[in-house]
Amino acid sequence: MAAIEQFIGTLYGILFHDFVLYTLVAVGLLFTIWSGFGQYRALTHGVGVIRGKYDDKDDPGAINHFQALSAALSATVGLGNIAGVAVAIALGGPGAVFWMWVIGVLGMSLKMTEVTQSMLYRNTDDPDNPHGGPMFVVREGFKKWGLGPIGAIFGGVFCVTLLISAITGGNMFQAWNVAEVTTQYVDGMPRVAVGIILAVVVGVVIIGGIKRIGAVAGRLVPLMCALYLLAGLYVLVMNIGEIPAMLGMIVQYGVGLGTASAEGAFVGGAFGYAMMWGIKRALFSSEAGQGSAPIAHAAAKCDEPVREGVVGGIEPFIDTIVVCTLTALVILASGAWNRGPEANFDESTTVALVQTADGQWTVETPTIPAKTPEARRITQVPEGQSGWAAEDQVFVLVRASDNEDTGDNVMRVSGAVVEDEDGNRSIEWSSFDAGADSSGGAIVPELVDDGLYVDYAGAGLTAHAFDRGQPGMGMWLIMVASWLFAISTMISWSYYGEQGVYYLFGSLPKSAVNNVVLLYKLVYCVLIVISTLPFIRTDAQLDTWTTMGLGVMLVANIPIMLIFGAQAMKAYHEYMGKLKRGEFDDEAHEPASLKDVAEGKDVE
Questions:
Q1: Closest CA to 106 of 43, 26, 36
Q2: Which residues are within 8 A (CB) of 170 and not within 5 positions of it... i.e. 6 or more apart?
Q3: Fold of 37-336+471-599
Q4: Are 457 and 465 in contact, with CB atoms under 8 Å apart?
C-alpha cells in the first residue's frame, strides 16, 4: 500500500505541477478574451435557453437543456462544494477562496468552449441516445484532416483518464465523505453499511440510462441546492458582522498581501500554497476544462451547438461563485477553520514527545482529557458521556522545521481514539519527522500548546462549521446534503464513465457492448462499497487519490480544447451574430413552466 501511495504521490506532483495550473488559467483567459467575455452571454442568453425559450421537440437528443444542465451540475455541485472547499481552506487558508473565484469566472469560458466543441462533433445516429465528449471531438476532428487513427488513439487515451476520474473523484471521494460524515454523527453505524446503501440507490438509477439520470437530476439538483443555500444563509446572518472582515481576508491573502499565519487549528498558508489549493479545489468542484460536462450536454435536444455551449457556461457560476462561496463564508465566519482545541491536557496529565528507534518522533498521552464546555455544547454531548468515540481523529500542534507551504514551523501530529476490550479509550499516535534546521542539525520538536484538537476532515469540517452556528444543524444538514450531493454526483459520473466504455468498445456487436456497459455499472457500484472501507484516513490522503483523476483528465483535455478551439470560437461568433440580428426570433416562444422544464416535457 505504501508503494502505491508513493507512486500516486509522484504522479500527483507531475499532474499538478505549477506549469499545468498556470496553463489552465492561461487557456481560460484565452477563451474569455476570444469569446468577448462570453460569461455575460451565459448568464443572459443561457438562462433563456434553459427556460425552454428555444426548445424544439424535433431536435435530436434525449433530454432538454435544463435536464442536461442539471445532469452536469449534479456531477459538479456535490461533495466538492462541501468537502473540497473545506480541504482548500483547512490547508490553504482564506486566500484559497480568492483563487476559487478566479477559476469560477475563467471556468465559465472553458465550459462554454468545450461543450460547444462536443456539440459540433457529437454522434446523433440514434437521436434518442446521442454520444459526445472530447473523445468524439478528437476522433471526428482528426478524421476530417485524414488522421483518423491518430484521433481514435487520442480519444482512447482520454477515455482511460475519464474512467480513472470516474472511479476516484466521481466515486471514491463521494462515498468516502458520506461514510465519514454519517459515522461522525451516527454512533455504531458501520462505514461499509453506508457504502452498501449508496451502491443500491445509485445502481437503481444508473441502470435506467441517461433519461432516468436526467429525470432524477432535474428534480434533485434544484431541491438540494435550495436546501443548502437556505441553511448557509441562516448561518451567515447569525455571523453577519464577521463577513466584511472575512471578505477582506480572502482578497488580502489571495493577492499575496501577506501570509495567513498559524492560528488555532490552522497551521498557516503561504500565498503560493493558497493559490494552488484554491485552483485545485475549484477545478475539482466545477470540472472546468476537464472534459466531463460536455458528455452530459451532448445528450441535450438541440440543433445549435453554441446554444448548448452557453448553457454549459452557467455551471461554474452556480457551482463555484455561488455554492462554493457560501460554504467558504460559513467555514470562515463561524471560526471553524482556525478553531480552538476541544480539550486541554491538564498538569496532572503527562504529555511527552518521544523519539522512536528509527529517529522519528511520536506523542505519548496516557489519558484523554474531558472536552471543554463549549465543545460539548457545539457537539451536543449528553450529560454523563465523554464526547469521545472510537476512531475519532485528533491531533496536537507541534513546532518543528520550517515549512514553505505553510509559512510557519507549526505542524499537526495525528492520532486516533482507540478502545480496548474493557471500554477504556486512549489515543494511538502516528509518528512524524521533525526535520532539520538551516544548518542541517536535528530539531527537537515541542508542543505549541496543551490543546487536543479534533481533526474534521473534508465534509466533517463544513458540518462542524454549521454546528458552530446552530448546534445540531451540521448533523442533519450535512448528512442530508452529503447523501443527496454524493448520489447525484455518482450517478452523473457513472454516465460519463459509461460513455468512455462505449467509445472504447463501440466497435463490438451491440449485444457485446451492452454487456460490457452492464459490467462497468456493476463494478462501479462495487467500488462505492470498497471506497467506504477504512484505508483512507485523512484529508491529505483523500486529496492525493481523488485529484489524481482530475489531473489526468486536464492533461488529456487541454490540448483537445486548444486544437479545436478555433472551430468553437468561429461557431460562437457566428451564432452570436445571428442572435444580435434577430435571426432566431422566429424560433423563440414563451418559456415553459418551471414544472414542465424540470420534468423534461416537450414544448408543443
A1: 26
A2: 75, 489, 490, 492, 493, 494, 496, 497, 549
A3: Amino acid/polyamine transporter I (1.20.1740)
A4: no
What is the pTM assigned to this prediction? 0.83
Contact status, residue 407 vs residue 259, Cβ threshold 8 Å: yes
pLDDT at 5: 60
- Name residue, grid cell 453499511: 193
Asked if residue 399 lies in contact with residue 448, where contact means CB atoms within 8 angstroms, the answer is yes
Q: Which of 271, 301, 262 is nearest to 96 (CA)?
A: 271
Strands 361-364 and 352-355: antiparallel
What is the predicted pLDDT for the residue at 71?
Answer: 80
* Per-residue burial over 512-538, b = 16 or more CB atoms within 10 Å of its CB, e = otherwise: ebeebbeebbeebbebbbebbeeebbb
What φ, ψ does residue 434 adopt, rounded to 5°? -80, -15
Confidence at residue 229, expressed as pLDDT on a 0 to 100 scale: 86
Residues of the chain below pLDDT 50:
none
pLDDT for 346: 79
**Backbone angles phi and psi of 328, in degrees to 5:** -60, -45
Cell of 532: 467506504
Amino acid letter for position 339: R
Cα gap 15→468, rounded to integer Å: 37
How far apart (Å, rounded) are the C-alpha atoms in residues 69 and 221? 10
**Location of C-alpha cell 505549541:** 448
- Amino acid identity for residue 121 in this structure: Y
Measured CA to CA in angstroms, residue 57 lies from 60, 175, 211, 303, 505 at distances of: 8, 37, 15, 11, 31
User: Could you write out the three-class secondary structure of 518-549?
Assistant: HHHHHHHHHHHHHHCCCCCCCHHHHHHHHHHH
Q: Where are the alpha helices (DSSP H) in 77-127?
A: 79, 85-92, 95-121
The number of beta carbons lying within 10 Å of the beta carbon of residue 287 is: 31
Task: Give the closest residue to 470 by CA, choosing from 377, 341, 387.
Answer: 377
Burial of 77 (0-12, 13-18, 19+ CB in 10 A): buried
Per-domain residue ranges of the chain: 37-336+471-599, 343-378+386-453
Under 8 Å between Cβ of 304 and 115: no
Neighbours of 400 (CB within 10 A): 21
141-149 contacts, C-beta under 8 A, 24 or more apart: 141/563, 141/564, 141/567
If DSSP codes are grouped into helix, strand and coil, which group holds residue 401? Answer: strand
Provide the angle, in degrees to the nearest 10, between the axes of the packed helices 148-167 and 539-563: 160
Beta bridge partners of 63: 300
Taking alpha carbons only, the member of 336, 417, 408 closest to residue 378 is 336
Q: Tell me the three cell numbers of residue 447.
A: 508542543
Measured over the CA atoms of residue 544, residue 547, residue 552 and residue 555, the dihedral's sign is: negative
Q: What is the pLDDT of residues 155-197, one digit of tens each?
A: 998 998 889 888 887 888 788 878 887 887 787 788 899 999 9
Per-residue pLDDT of 407-436, as tens digits, reads 888 999 999 998 888 778 889 999 998 888
